[in-house]
Amino acid sequence: MHEIFLDELKKLNTRFMELGVLVNDLIDKGTRSFVDHDKKIAQEMIAEDKEVAKEAIKIEKKALSLMALQQPVATDFRVVISILKATTDLERIGENANSIAVETVRVKGNPRIADVETIISQMTHQVRTMLIQVLTAYVQEDEQTARAMVSGHQEVYADYKKARKLIIDGVEKDPNAAVASASYFVIIRLLERISDHIVNIASWVIYKTSGELFELMESGKK
Amino acid sequence: MHEIFLDELKKLNTRFMELGVLVNDLIDKGTRSFVDHDKKIAQEMIAEDKEVAKEAIKIEKKALSLMALQQPVATDFRVVISILKATTDLERIGENANSIAVETVRVKGNPRIADVETIISQMTHQVRTMLIQVLTAYVQEDEQTARAMVSGHQEVYADYKKARKLIIDGVEKDPNAAVASASYFVIIRLLERISDHIVNIASWVIYKTSGELFELMESGKK
To answer: Which positions carry the signal peptide feature in this UniProt record (chains A, B) (predicted)?
Structure first.
């Protein structure tokens, strides 16, 4: 019986990882569609986003049924709970990536601010690196890497503040950039939110590994 | 044994509701501090936000220990799971309210756009009404009200789009409003996110009541 359970758990872990990798691609696609003004990628993504939501629900259902039918204890219990909770964060990251793509469709041919787009690309690179790190830490039950996500987030937040200032300066110089600025403000916030969800996933890595449950980040510092 | 469990569950439900009411106050305080330029409330809030995070962790810990020690089944299982998941949404709503207060501190004495502040107040009223409705639906296991949250969210989203346009027009007319516009974009997004979390809570009300697990809202439509 326990072997079947462990086998199911292994499959669930694989699906969780696959969802993570899919979502990581979406972050790249979302920003790329925006920076390259590529509406085609943006529209593709809006379709793929539904796939993420569907798969997340399937994983959650599977986790809930394992929990209800097998009543796992100790480590097994924690593994199922961590998937149940961290899947929501992955799904949200997917939604955020999708919202970046939505801005591509919105901004059309309006004047843009080059510096801001550079920092957006940087932030995208940073959150994608963090996501792969946290997924790897999840598999390897690597608490140390999980804890390091906080300083990763602080870098993203520093870039967020820098970007905000660049946008304000850009619009003050050229009020025609106001339409693009709306999208910029949304996108830098979305990237910062993605980073925040990665820290949440890190919290669940620590819970899974050690049984400790706490917030890695005091939200006042976000 | 089961009576003790039910008693614990009742207490947990009460704490969940209390957290909901606290968070609802924070939404009001956050927007009020911003619209009235009241830095004192804003600073108070940033302290209270930590309380929300602490209480959410306590509720989650309690739910996890009930789950692990009592291994509830059927309805009891669903009640514990719904608290475990919906508490995260309440906590996030609290964080979002706090982020609104942070904008109060940021915007300082810069020129503002009156129409935008009116619509922000409207949106705040709407999400607070929705939050009370969903909390009540949670207690009463009222699936119909829970489902109605989707149309509530659609109204909030319509206001979000309207506000976005008003901000862009305002900055185009007066580039000195660029600093305030950064805060406006953040705040309307936060209010829309709060509404989104309320729809998530509604999904957990439905799960708790009927055992059905699905996304109330297709994220492509958000």
So the answer is: none
